[in-house]
Amino acid sequence: MTTSTEAPGTARAASETVHPPRTAESGSDFARLAKRISRAGLLERRPRYYAVRFSVVSVLFAAGWTAFALLGDSWWQPAVAAFLGLVFGQIALLTHDLAHRQVFRRRRPSETGGRLFGNLGIGMSYGWWMNKHTRHHANPNHEELDPDVIPDILVWSGKQARESRGLPRFIGRRQAYLFFPLLTLEGFNLHVSSVRALFARGMKRRVLEAVLLSAHTAVYLGALFLVLSPGKALLFLFVHQAVFGVYLGSTFAPNHKGMPTFTGEDRPDFLRRQVLTSRNVRGGHLMDIALGGLNYQIEHHLFPSMATPHLRRARAIVREYCAELNIPYHETGLIASYREALRHLHAVGAPLRRGGRDAVPAA
């Protein structure tokens, strides 16, 4: 296992949600934890919670676009764009819960809701994201198997820094300073990746995904350029997507960045693989709302189908159990989590700043 300097402590089919191991490890450390969680009733669905949450987010979505229509060609529209950027982030978090079958137990209603809220609602392909996120859950922070730490623009480890070329090598020198500015482009990147995925092999329900994404794009851009002047429409587009990208990126950034990573065949058992690579973020109910429950990243990775409101109670059980087994359980405040992630990014970029390819810190 390779560990970052600041860290304290085979992919499945694309259409499947990652689930913890079951009968084969009935006597495993994870199985004993799962029994405690089950006895506490924390694997039950919470339909009323999700009914309220979906209703509130839908009202906010409608209110944002109503304000957009009433304001018309006004310079106040960037404020509406910023508000809708936050709402789009909340919709993305709800789509995440649908994908993990936290809302519905069955696959069909989960996929239907995911495509309606994801593809049609915010222009993000449910099928593409499901493929990517499933592989991440199966092998978090594994440099060859987790798509979230495979170098695209940023490098996440010393090995990746040594092998980087082109844009990742150029940006890697100052990637800690560029991380949050780059998130302003993440909203656009999600849309581009969604369209590119339509042409990838193995994409299921390709036509349906394409129709819903096209409908979203046509209505979204049509509304902007019909109501606003071209200059204001472009400004709205940038502010909206920038806020969406920064919010969503800031929600996911604290979860694993700067935590231990794996390479090759170095894969511990399910319990340790999920706990060691994840970081929780402390906070009250406001933090739960802002991060959509992903502040309980350890519990979410151990029990991905657990309804969001149960994660807070599960935390106490999981933390106590990890202490019994002497497994490092890491949680910190929100700002500290960003600090740890940025320090890690800065550390792995050190050899690129020196211009060398040999002395690379462990990452």
Overview of this structure, please?
The protein has 363 residues and is mainly alpha-helical. The chain has one domain. The protein is built from 17 helices and two strands. The chain has helices at residues 29-39, 47-71, 77-99, 107-122, 126-138, 158-163, 166-172, 175-183, 186-197, 206-227, 230-256, 270-276, 285-290, 297-302, 311-325, 334-348, 350-354; strands spanning 280-281, 331-332. A two-stranded parallel ribbon has the order 1-2. The chain is globular and about 60 Å long. The relative contact order is 0.18. The model is unreliable at 1-19, 22-26 and 356-363 (pLDDT under 50).
Note poorly predicted spans.
Answer: 1-19, 22-26, 356-363
Describe the largest sheet. 2 strands, parallel
Outline = globular
Please provide the ordered H/E string of secondary-structure elements. HHHHHHHHHHHHEHHHEHH
Q: What is the strand tally?
A: 2
Q: Averaged pLDDT, please?
A: 89
What is the subunit organization of this protein? single chain
Q: Can you tell me the number of structural domains?
A: 1
In which order are the strands of the major sheet placed?
1-2
Number of helices: 17
| Share in β-strands | under 5%
Protein name: Acyl-CoA desaturase
Keywords: Membrane, Transmembrane, Transmembrane helix
Domain Fatty acid desaturase: 74-332
GO molecular function: oxidoreductase activity, acting on paired donors, with oxidation of a pair of donors resulting in the reduction of molecular oxygen to two molecules of water
